[in-house]
Specification:
By secondary structure, the chain is mainly α. The protein has six helices and no strands. The longest helix has 70 residues. The radius of gyration is 40 Å and the shape is rod-shaped.
Length: 147
Amino acid sequence: MVNEQTVRGDWNQIKGEMRNQWGQLTDDELDQARGNVEKLIGIIQRKTGEAREAIEQKLSQWIDEESLRQAMETARQRTAAAVEAVTHQAEQIGEKVREGVETVSDQARAGYIQLERGVRRRPMQSVATSFGIGVVVGVITGLLLRR
């Protein structure tokens, strides 16, 4: 059985389908029935001589197709909204990563400048410290390689 509420909701689409299927129906006749399934079926039966079951089957088919179109459109809209949200999030994350890289780069640059100034102020101490660190690393490496 065809649902009257669904017929009313999809009336414009169904009306166009009915005009294509049963060309002898007039706009006035269709407007008289506007969503009233019993009246609509009666008008179509009188004008075309088709069986009630065949008319109901055709109406159900059109309603199912329209429901599917609406579901697909809803899914398309939701997918587009989700893609837009994900894209926005990805852009925000990318911006935060760029800011983090810039911060680390700035800190490394500042550390290098500070180290360079220290070496210029105390070159002998810097060479001695570097030599000492090299010796310690060499001894540790040698001990590790013996094992």
